[in-house]
Amino acid sequence: MSRTFYVNGEFVAEADAKVSVLDRGFLFADAVYEVSSVLGGQLIDNDAHMNRLHRSLSEISMQAPATDAEVLAAQQKLIELNEIDEGLVYLQVTRGVADRDFGFPANATPTIVMFTQKKNLLNSPQAKTGIKVISVPDIRWQRRDIKTVGLLAPALAKQAAADAGVDDAWMVEDGFVTEGSSNNAYIVHHDGTIQTRHLGNEILSGITREAVLRLCGLTQNKYIEKPFTIEEAKNAKEAFITSASSFVMPVVSIDGQDIGDGEPGETSKKLRELYIEIAREKGTFSHVQE
Ligand code: PMP
After folding, report:
1. Domains of the chain, earliest start first
2. pTM here?
3. Which of 180, 235, 186, 234 is nearest to 210 (CA)?
């Protein structure tokens, strides 16, 4: 069955899902995006993703191309038409189509595109084995808090990981881990304290990160928001990543060195289970007290 895509208000077949070569998303990566997960046909934490979309748009001086209600209705229709029980909804907004020139066009209409991907999120094989990562220099621009589609550096990082025979890359700047190529990075200390980098322009403020830090209250893990080194990660009890498409995913090796006993750690497993339980039950984490 071919997928239905959403392009500027229309639901169309993949073959008709097209934007102009003059679209500024294509020419300048002048575009922002969001990825929300779907479990049991239900969007997870979508309000938080929409809030972040508005922040990204505002940071690059763009207007929202549709109301939140219109976007939600389109997301839900795509889930239905494409029969997504478990998977992702991708949403991208660009500054629109205009003849190539760096400055913002005066009258461009934003382009909005959405599509779905079926994905085995709950029983992903990687969740059972954990993932292996390498470290790479963080060569991205300085506004990683904006979720732009300028993703060449993460694409190079992921390919470097694949070439090295591992699953992903953690990016390092000034001696400290910033984040994973498309996820936030965490270590768990031997006393159970969870550590992840503080928010700022250097990393994306992950929606799953926000949820998981809230869950630490329920699992009675303390957490600190502070940068850590690859050396600290190698000596940690456990490590894991979070993102909308991986939830909580254990990391079992860094640069060829096992973390702990080289198996997914207890804290990572517990947080993953709890995340999935609340996501399926409530579809949001906003009610979880920190
Ligand atoms: N950091 C980066 C660089 C990412 O690309 C992503 C996922 N898009 C994340 C963190 C995780 O964010 P979220 O939990 O909102 O998916």
Report:
1. 4-118 (3.30.470.10), 125-282 (3.20.10.10)
2. 0.98
3. 186
